[in-house]
Amino acid sequence: MAEKNLIYIVDDDQGVRLSLAMLLRAHGFETHSFAAATDFFESFTALQPAPVLLDLHMPSMDGIDFLMALRERTQIGWPVVMMSGNGDVPSAVLAMKLGTLDFIEKPIQPETLLSVISAAQARQAAMQGKATEPPVENEVRERLSPREFDVLQMIAHGMATKSIAVHLGISPRTVEMHRAHIVRRLQVRSMSEAVALAARAERD
Fold first, then answer.
1. Is the dihedral of CA 26, 29, 35, 37 positive or negative?
2. Is-above-0.70 flag for pTM?
3. Could you tell me the fold of the domain covering 140-203?
4. CATH number of 3-127
């Protein structure tokens, strides 16, 4: 199998590892799975750089600790996609600041998985100097109204609905309406994914 088709899966849930591996292999990828982040780093020196599908919530070393440990070693050729069944905005923001390519919530739809893997491979090629990845256009602002964009920025900074309402002089119900519009217009499944998309677009 060509090096460009290798994907690492790091998740303590055996069912998730197996289902992701089966799906990826059905589309021509080679996978190497780890039940713990510590297992990954124990084998790190023998691994070739490739995209990593990483679970956020794991015992011993969670996804955030993994990112920091990887950052200490190298950032070259290791694009990371964070996965979570209990995504939250602070974790999404921190993961993006630590260099995560994307943040997706479980259960993961096949088309979503294949899309992020494609982006991860493009990023890996660019990081290794094998190709130039086209810049990601920041379409977030264009898709949202000015007020919705303001709400998204406040959510990304950890502000709660009531605090946003007071700051903008609107009702909490209106803030919730804006939240729903943001998710729909950005074509994501949750506010965590909306924040991650905005952070990635701004970073790129």
1. negative
2. no
3. Arc Repressor Mutant, subunit A (1.10.10)
4. 3.40.50.2300
